[in-house]
Design goal:
Largest sheet: 5 strands, parallel
CATH class: Alpha Beta
Number of domains: 1
Order of helices and strands: HEHEEHEHHHHEHHHHHHH
CATH architecture: 3-Layer(aba) Sandwich
Structural class: mainly alpha
Number of strands: 5
Strand order of the largest sheet: 2-3-1-4-5
Strand content: under 5%
Mean pLDDT: 87
Low-confidence stretches: 1-12, 22-44, 55-63
Length: about 400
């Protein structure tokens, strides 16, 4: 009896710091909430096309762009969780910074008060009627508010990932801040959860949205709709009318080629290094049975992915399979050149081996599973700046763009 009581006290003491941490973060979320604004746009609040920067003279058509096409600069990128979106973000940061475009940036945090729906008032130094070129940080999608910030000719782009792989990644990355997962026993919490998800899930619980249909939640919808609920397809059709291009993480290079084509950018504009990638040993390999259970649990996300995966391949067919293959090979060749030029050892390393703090990516609480890069010491001066920017993680890049991230840093 004494031993049981002692063990119980020890377990309670271990839980206390996590409970306190969660409460502190909730208070911070409340403190950093900005005032509510009117959801319906008015003429005074909406960015007018006549004052927006639509075709800046600093950008000229590239040799590999269509002759009748001018580079697009007004872009809304809906950054979804765990979908390779951090790599897209770096591409947008570099393009916008290079061409002196105007970003709508978050304030005090690296997101727009997520998981709250996006509001214009969450933008750093926002003034009603102000125009921006690029919005691209984490948010919960709210088209009515976003349409106030961007001119009517803005292009809306996002990226999706297979729901099973996304669910596995999100479960691993966020479980330390999801109290629902703290009481799951066993060495493989993910499998335990999938065997009986209802036992460890409540829609009202803190951060529970990370555990079910996370994509659907990111887009501003109810992530707890039941299987075969007709509202799922209705919401998917709504997104089809809002987004000009939906990228697919599993076909990342093909996605970038389609993005380049849509925006009329050059191959140089879409060169990249993979950012925010986990080391292979931290990835849980789900067997077919567990994958089927994960798919059933994330049914709304699956329907979303299924729909836009089909439309993605329709875009590839329209682009031309042979042309796509040639462009992907060229992108791979150019990327390989940049890796050899910029990266010490030519590849990513584990967090413990990253030498400069500026290149250290954000890590899940209690571990260092996200890999990063080291910049070569013998790099030519003319390449140092672009190489450093390509290797810079989101948090550090936001700081470089002038965002005071005191809330994120405190976390």
């Amino acid at each position: 009896m004494f031993n049981k009581g002692f063990i119980c006290k020890v377990m309670v003491r271990r839980l206390i710091p996590w409970v306190v941490l969660t409460k502190v973060m909730l208070v911070l979320y409340c403190l950093t909430m900005t005032r509510q604004v009117n959801i319906s746009p008015t003429q005074e609040e909406t960015c007018p096309l006549s004052t927006a920067k639509t075709s800046p003279g600093v950008i000229t058509g590239s040799p590999d762009s269509k002759q009748d096409c001018s580079p697009k600069v007004n872009i809304m990128f809906m950054k979804t969780h765990k979908t390779a979106s951090s790599t897209i973000l770096n591409i947008l940061y570099r393009f916008g910074e290079k061409h002196k475009l105007k970003f709508a940036l978050p304030d005090r945090r690296n997101d727009f008060c997520y998981p709250q729906p996006f509001l214009c008032s969450q933008v750093k130094d926002y003034r009603a009627g102000e125009c921006f070129n690029i919005v691209c940080n984490h948010m919960r999608f709210n088209y009515q508010q976003l349409s106030k910030l961007l001119p009517p000719n803005a292009l809306y782009v996002t990226i999706l990932r297979h729901p099973v792989d996304l669910f596995e990644s999100a479960f691993h990355y966020f479980q330390k801040i999801i109290p629902l997962t703290w009481r799951i026993n066993g060495n493989n919490k993910l499998t335990e959860f999938l065997n009986n998800p209802e036992a460890f899930y409540s829609p009202e619980a803190i951060n529970s949205f990370y555990l079910k249909n996370l994509l659907f939640f990111d887009f501003g919808f109810d992530n707890n709709l039941k299987v075969n609920d007709p509202r799922v397809m209705k919401e998917i059709q709504y997104l089809s009318k809002r987004f000009h291009l939906v990228l697919i993480a599993e076909y990342f290079e093909e996605s970038l080629i389609l993005l380049k084509d849509l925006l009329c950018w050059s191959m140089e504009d879409i060169l990249y290094f993979k950012l925010n990638v986990r080391r292979t040993s931290s990835v849980s390999r789900l067997d077919p049975e567990m994958r089927a259970k994960a798919l059933q649990w994330n049914w709304a996300d699956w329907k979303l992915y299924e729909h836009f995966n089909a439309s993605f391949w329709e875009r590839v067919e329209a682009y031309g399979r042979t042309r796509m293959e040639q462009d992907v090979n060229e992108l791979r060749r150019r990327n390989a050149e940049m890796r050899a030029t910029c990266i010490e050892g030519g590849d990513a390393v584990e967090a413990q081996k990253i030498k400069e703090r500026h290149f250290m990516p954000w890590q899940p609480i209690g571990e260092k599973s996200i890999m990063g890069y080291n910049l070569r010491n013998d790099i030519n001066p003319e390449n140092r700046t672009i190489c450093a920017k390509m290797l810079t993680p989101e948090i550090q890049y936001l700081s470089d763009l002038g965002v005071n991230l005191w809330v994120t840093k405190l976390w």
